[in-house]
Design brief:
5 helices, alpha+beta, 303 residues, homotetramer, Helix Hairpins, 15 strands, 2 domains, Immunoglobulin-like
């Protein structure tokens, strides 16, 4: 029988932590390999604060380097700079001229007064416009990267279907106001063998694994009947086998016009037993449907 | 039997309005949820007028802030500014210098004449070029977002097929002159139970649910024979059950090189009985096919 | 039986011209419909020469408008402009200052010397940078639009297979040096009824309708045996029925990382009978395969 | 039986080199064909060093051309340029002014002092901003082009499965830290007939041809049992038949939000017999899985 390992590994020498973090990343570290420079990926994925800090630092360093070059040339090549006032003032004067060239402001109260300064400032002007061309692309790349903001219920629940059968459920909603289309979900369970620490995977079929839209909430239901790999297991068994319910969700984002993928997982401490979800949407008095994202986690004891 | 709910909800405490608006949006309001900031989505989706207004206001605010900073520093740091003429004139002078720095025009009749002004104007020049880098990305993102401009006939009709069977029909055409490829359509009907207000959905299979191209018009036909969930229903039944015919159309846009999705719906007041569509295209005298978009809604009484 | 109309129409009052032009566009004109403004699509699709002409004209018009505004304000607001020399010289002076502001060059030998000129030039600087932000997006959009440059053989041929059966063949190659992946082809034939002018379509199945790559050439083969809608037809029949062989080709472009679609069609005058293709690739002396695009149309008489 | 040629050719007059190079490109040369200008593709695909060199050279040439135009006009039209000092100094002065206009720095110590210089510098400013608009698009296009950095094991191995059957194996890992989703692999073998030099292809089915993720390593296994086209062949047979194992790998890149394709191939000298892979991942003491890319090629003798 073909393995159902989704690519997360089956043989480890000891217990592993959860495979999927709550932000959808994998609990994996990487070592070795040929050195790889992915400045674009790095600059696209880093947080905004760090991005602007790196841009600012790079801007300062580049301009400081050009300022030092102007100083090496001699500030007498930059008419308009006040008479020498020591290293610090000279550096600042050269730095300000450099920034005015780099950003193409070019007030002109200081200007290149020799061939050397003309050539150096020409080079800097080119470097400057190309640098901001790069920054433009990076900013667009950061902004336009489609990222689904699927909100998963913090707990999965073991509930009961209308026919009395137990089932595993969790809910999702769209954190954003934009439109998600053609959602499909796939759920697998990861077991760890208590003795060998070997890991095995099994699919958890859903009563319904696709919806056309997600304007409200979507409750995903896995039947815990005899066909389920979780059939008959109790909370203690979940813990003993290190159960991890791994959810993969694909959708099409109408704003970005691209497919987006989300991942989430539930470990035993995030599974509530004998509960059911309260409905998180209803219709307002004007006949318009209304979804309450704050109620996504609302559950109640099964009667 | 698995529910056919496309994700629009099945249980509401009272009658709901139509699920899909004519612009393809959902008739759903959202409340609660973790706060989410999607400036990109907001700036991409807002109308052009509002976009340019927000850009203009932000431009003014940023430059006013820098102008106040230059004033706090003292306008004597900006040689070329006329002697002080009161708060308003000073603010305007500082504002104009700020704009000249922010946009990197830098005429230079006013220029930073001290280290403080040099540093502040350097910062402003950087903020300025980055702001316009952002604006560049936003403008491109707004322009390049693929949006299908599928024109749906304003009414669906209940007509008769060549074999005498009744059928439900509506037509679509491409409002744009660009090329749409590989169109696929899916139609479902939404019923509301008059007593419980519960909602149910059923698929309406089409005689043909895909075409390769859409240069002319495409008439979508659902057979109302015994196999249809609408079989035997009359206009009054449509109204009593709050019928909503929901259309989902997917196509590939050859200009944007991306899939685009359209949605539309017909409610009972938008369904005409006993009519047929007049052909909306023909061939001109030079042998070239010609489509008349104004005739998309042209119907005539069934004989 | 469901129609095989790919969306090009079946009922016309007289003979139509070919449905697909050699550049892949449809032979269709459009009339009426709600007015639709697609400046992006228009600016993306127009030829480069026209694009730069429109950009140049818009640039001139915008700057002329600002120049007139500066003149209305009075050129005494622009210190540095020479004393008045008549309308033409004044306009030129204002125009040059306008361009220097619009493009953010801002030499500064002319500068805004009043609040009115300061405000107007601030507005123009903003309009200027936003205009070039737009131009940046448009240039990128034009450049990055994936367009397959599939080269179709100018003729389709009626040839003979190894087993003696007649077959219809045509060849394609990639005009570009980039890599096309996962090509799939679909071929249909369009017949016109000589009497009614009604049009019908039929699929022409291919011996092989997909290849993984297209580094060399790909010969598409339709078996003209008993199963073919063209079985037994001769050249005269092709002409009498206005046969048009319509080819739809989809591939994935590894440079643009996007699907690209090509269309082509063969009419009776573009079909050669009783010929076979000469091989258009071979291996060079260093063991490297070599494709000769000039030989794509090379055919020889069947022996 | 339909050919399995993936599009790489079947009939050659002599032995060919490997079809797929290690960088995924095809071992194919192209000749003839209508001339095609793909500046975008060329500029997107060239190495960074060459890209910046071409940008620099173009920048110099354009500015030199404008410098010559200013000289033809007469440098007396550019007040601020020092008195004539011979051709070289005049050219440099004009060049520096040109760069200051092209990059929109515009210090203003030199400025256009006549209508001719005003018009020429206006044109140059427009050309300059459009050129940098183009450069912005190109830089973004280069950066944002999704390229999978799949690391293939340098050797494929002939190993033994738990059931004792021989199998062909190779491994892949993701060189990057980003997330690859929904990987699918297809493997074919290319044989060359020693006598006719004709080439034939056969599919090599995998025990598992898809994984959901690739955070660790993925070992692809082809069963060399009776069903395999390689069944019973020894190393000498591989060499005699010029075996080439061709791997096609498709995945979805979560950073670029696009599908990416990788190709690789193994020739007889890159196939090791009677070995097995050592596991390249394990769990660290903190329970986090750890993959060691340097161990991707680690194999050991079969016992």
């Amino acid at each position: 029988m073909a393995s159902l390992d989704p690519g997360i590994g089956e043989k480890f020498s000891q217990r592993t932590q959860r495979a999927i973090n709550h932000d959808g990343s994998f609990n994996v570290r990487r070592r070795g390999g040929p050195p790889i420079h992915d400045p674009y990926q790095r600059l696209i994925l880093m947080p905004w604060g760090r991005f602007f800090t790196e841009v600012g630092v790079l801007f300062l360093l580049l301009n400081a380097a050009f300022a030092l070059a102007y100083m090496a040339l001699g500030l007498e090549n930059l008419p308009g700079v006040a008479a020498p006032h020591g290293w610090v003032q000279d550096f600042l004067s050269a730095l300000f001229f450099s920034v005015q060239t780099f950003t193409s402001v070019g007030y002109g109260h200081v200007y290149p007064g020799s061939n050397g300064a003309g050539a150096l400032s020409s080079l800097e002007a080119l470097v400057g416009v190309l640098t901001f061309a790069l920054a433009t692309g990076l900013l667009y790349g950061r902004f336009s990267r489609p990222t689904a903001r699927i909100l998963f219920s913090r707990v999965a629940i073991v509930s009961r279907q209308p026919n009395g059968q137990p089932c595993l459920q969790f809910r999702v909603a769209n954190r954003r106001a934009n439109i998600l289309i053609e959602l499909t979900a796939q759920v697998i369970v990861k077991f760890t063998d208590a003795a060998t620490k070997n890991i095995s995977y099994a699919a958890l079929p859903l009563e319904r694994d696709a919806v056309s839209f997600l304007p409200l909430t979507w409750t995903l239901v896995h039947d815990l009947g005899p066909g389920s790999p979780l059939h008959g297991l109790q909370a203690a068994d979940y813990a003993a086998r290190d159960v991890e319910i791994i959810v993969m969700l694909k959708s099409y984002d109408d704003t970005f016009a691209q497919d987006v993928y989300s991942r989430y997982s539930y470990i035993p401490s995030e599974i509530a037993w004998h509960r059911r979800f309260r409905r998180a949407y209803d219709v307002a008095s004007d006949g318009i449907a209304e979804v309450n994202l704050d109620a996504l986690d609302d559950t109640e004891e099964l009667s």
